[in-house]
Specification:
This protein is an alpha/beta fold and 138 residues long. The chain has helices at residues 5-9, 28-34, 50-60, 71-81, 93-99, 101-117, and strands at 16-19, 38-43, 86-91, 121-125, 136-137.
Length: 138
């Protein structure tokens, strides 16, 4: 499936996990917020351990101290976030995959599953890593 970012924000594209193929400097989070979406950034380019991934999620998304740092807790958080149209823009998938490709693939699969179950959860990954097959391209 190929879509444009504007069609995602207009609600013309089903929720899903997408690989970004546009300009690297485009402010996707800012545009989504301006369109009334809840928009969250996740930057794992400087993460040096998989535990650091969960720390980055907790910090970037302002999660409470008691956030469980595991896949089940992440899935629950995504379900809570997706109560309204939500965009997540992830930079650094490639770097995380270099640290732990198996667990990174599990996160990608979880993001895909969560977006398929939500009414309006869109995840855009800015870099490509063949840890799992993506749903489409933007």
């Amino acid at each position: 499936m190929t879509a444009t970012f504007d069609s995602v924000l207009a609600g013309l594209v089903s929720p899903g996990l997408f690989s970004w193929r546009g300009r690297a400097d485009r402010d996707l989070v800012g545009e989504a917020r301006a369109a009334g979406w809840q928009a969250l950034a996740l930057d794992t380019r400087q993460v040096t351990s998989f535990e650091g991934f969960y720390d980055e999620v907790a910090t970037a998304w302002e999660l409470p101290e008691w956030f469980g740092r595991n896949l089940d807790a992440l899935f629950d958080v995504l379900g809570d976030l997706a109560q309204r149209p939500t965009l997540i823009v992830w930079d650094g998938l490639h770097e995380l995959g270099d640290i732990d490709p198996v667990r990174t693939s599990a996160v990608v699969d979880l993001l895909r599953d969560a977006s398929e179950q939500a009414t309006a959860l869109v995840v855009i990954v800015r870099d490509g890593l063949d840890v799992s097959e993506f749903d489409g391209l933007l």
